[in-house]
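To whoever picks this up:

The parser on our side crashed when reading a file containing two proteins. I've narrowed it down to the boundary between the first structure block and the second sequence. Both blocks are reproduced below exactly, byte for byte. First block:
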Amino acid sequence: MNRKYEGLIVLNAQGTETSIDDLVSNVSKELEEEGAKLDEIKQLGRKKFAYNARKLDGGHYVNYVFEGEGDVIGKIKERLSLNNSVHLQHYQRLS
C-alpha cells in the first residue's frame, strides 16, 4: 500500500564543487532508486542554524513530497546516511 510522505533534507554544500541543483537531483535519484515516486520538490533555500552543528553554520533546505511503501523510509534513511552531502533528514507521513 503506497502512502504519501514528506521529507525535509538539509544539504551541506561546503567543500563540494557541484552546484545545489546537482545535489538536489542526486538526492532525488537516490530516493527513486529506493522505491519512492517523487511528486514535488521544493527548494527552500539556505538557512542559518541556531548554533554551529558539526562545524557548519547553515545548510540548504529541500522539501521532497513522495509516495512509497511502508518500508521506504527506513531504506531512504539508511542510504542517505552514507551520502556526505546530506547533513540532516526528517520524514513525516502525510496520508
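<<boundary where parser fails>>
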Amino acid sequence: MKSILTRRFPPEIKAPINPVYGEPIKKIYLGETYHGPTQPLFVPYSSFLRHALIVGSTGSGKTTTASRIATELSKYSKVIVVDWNGEYLGLLNSGIHYRVSSSNPVPIVGDDVEEVVNVFEEVLSLTPPQAFILEKALGNRVPESLTEVLDRIEESVEDSRWFLESKLSLLRKLSTISKPKYAKVFERRGVSRFLKLLVSSEGPMIADVSSLSDSTARKLASLFVLKLAEYLKLRRLVKNDLHLVVDEVHNLIGMNEGFLSRLHAEVRKLGIGLVIITQSPSIISKGILTNTNIKVVHTLKSREDIELISRSLGLYQYDVANLIARLEVGEALIDYTGLTKPALVRIEPPT
C-alpha cells in the first residue's frame, strides 16, 4: 500500500441531481484536502444519519470540527449539542443556548419506569439490588422530579436487612445530586420549554451542562437530554431529522454497553443521527467504534488510541500511525462510506 502522504485524494463530492425529484442531494462542507490537489471536501448529509465519530487529543481542534458540523447540519435538520465544558457558545454564531439550571430544567422523561431506572443505573453504577429498590420505589409512574425519586425511595419499607443496606447505599449514591441547588434541575416540567426552544431555533441548540459543578449531575443531565431527544422523536413532536452532538463522550460511557450504546444502535430508524466526540477512542464501546459511518481523526498521542483508530480505518501501518500523531491543530484524517480512501483535510471553522 502506498503511503497516505503520496496518494491522490478524492475529488470534490459534487451535489448530483436526484433523478426522481430533480433536487440536489444535501451535502455538508467540512474543509479542504491537502498533501495533494487542494479541493473542497463535502460529505453527503445522509451519511450523518448513520452517525459520526470525532476523536483527538485535547487542543487538536475537535470542538471546532464539531461546531462546523453542527452549523452545517442545522441547515437541514434540528441539532442539539450536549456541551460538557461550556465551549460551544463562543463558536456557534446562531442558535439557542440552553444553560441547564433550575430555570432551564432537564426533564425526566419516558413512559416506562424501566427506562428511567436504566439511566440512573448507568450514571450511578447501581448494583442489581439498588436498581431493584429504585424500580420498586417508583412503581408504575415516571417521577415528575428528582425530589420525587428521593421521596419514594425513602418511603419504601424495608422488609429485610439486605433491603435496608441496599436502600441506604442507594441514597448515599444519590446524595451528590440531592442537594438543594439541584432540586429543580431535574423536573418533568422542562419538556414543553425545551421543545418550544428547539423547534424555534434556526441554528444548533446548545444544551450546556457545564454550570452543574458535580460530575454526576452533569452526566445525569446529559443522558436525560439524549433521552428527551429520543422521546420527542418517538412521539413525532419534532418533525425534522434530529442530530445530537455529544461532546466529551468518555465522561458518559465506558467499555460496558450502556444507554448511549443502545441509543447509538437504535435511533437511526427514528431519524436521529449522533455525532460523538472523545479524546480517547479506546475507552468507548466497540459497537460505537465499529458502527459509525463517518470518522474524523485529529491528532492522537496514545499508541493504543492510534492503533485502534488505524485498524478501524483499515489502514494500520507505520506511516499512517506516525501521521496521526503529527497532525497539526485543525487538521484531520476523514473517512466515510463513499470515499475510496481517507482524506487529509484542514477543517474550516464555522461561519
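After patching the parser it read the second block fine. The radius of gyration is 22 Å. Residues 27-106+189-347 form a domain with the Rossmann fold fold (CATH 3.40.50.300).
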